[in-house]
Structure formats: structure tokens, C-alpha cells
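Q: How would the C-alpha cells look for this protein?
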Amino acid sequence: MHHHKQPPTLPTCTSPKSPLSSQDTQKLTEKQKPLQSRHLSQTPYNSSSSFRLSSNNNNNNNNNNTTQTPEHHTTTPDYSAYKPKRQWPPDMSKLSPKHQFRLERKYRRRAALKFARPKWTKGTKLVQWGVIGFVLVYAVLFMEWDDKGSPFDELRRAFFAGVKGTFSAPPPPGPVKRSDDS
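A: Here is the predicted structure in C-alpha cell form.
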């Protein structure tokens, strides 16, 4: 049998319009008490909040995420209490060419910053320079050019003689001449 642990309960949230009074909840046993703790993602919808953009509320009165203005009597979405400074996107036909160019420059700069991938760019450059270096080293030191030989034959001989001298064992000591033997 599996025993499931119940998740820790969050602070209780009771609404002022609770169907049960405080005396009724005290009379109920622990198992009969209504569930008063909830997860944060299950917050009840508050239709008067100006930060909610969804229109799926339960009450169908005039306060369904819209505001009635007395002078116009039209409903507009109540996204924010503040009006924006400028209309976005702007009407480009009403702007001067200088201002259009300024907006395009600002957009391009912000887009370049947003979509910049410095790690990817650095990795790509390292791979490209690694391939270029490998091709050059292979062409100079190892590739057979033609029957006449390569233009880098002297460089190859000097390079491989140095590598051989560096990584080979020193020659065995020969007979030593003494000054008394002459």
C-alpha cells in the first residue's frame, strides 16, 4: 500500500462572504471543514483588477473588465490606469522621413540587442578559425602538391628535424679521447 503525503498547506485565505459562519466552522470536525488553503495559481478571479486581461469572469454585469466613461458611454479595455504617451505602432505616413529613420534605427538597435547570441558567435568564430588553421598547417606540412615537390619542402625538413630532435633520445655517448693517449 502506498501512503501519500499531503502537500504542506499555505496560509488560509477566507473570503468575507463565506457561506459558513465562524461558529459553524468551529462545530465541524476536522474532516468536515471546508478546504481553505489553495495554491497560488488557483487565485480567484477578481473582475475589478486592472491587471487582469482575460475576460472569463463569472458575473455578467457591466464591470466585466471594461470601464464605462460618462462622456462617451463606450466600453474600452481597462489595461492600465495611465494613457500611453504615444500610439504604437506609429502611423509612418504621418511622420517625417527623419523621424521614420530615427525610429527604424532605434528598432534595429533594440532588435540587434535582443537577438544577439554572444556565446554562439564566439563558438562559431573559434570553429571557423580552427578549420582555417588546420587547412593551412595541413597544406604546408603534410599535403603532397605534385611530382616536382611542394614550395614548402625546406620548411618541412627544418620543422620535422626540429620535432625529431626535440622528441628523440639523445645519441649514445661515444669514446672519449684523453690528452694522455696521444
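Confidence is low (pLDDT under 50) at residues 45-52, 54-65.

Strands lie at 66-68, 75-77.

Upvote if useful.
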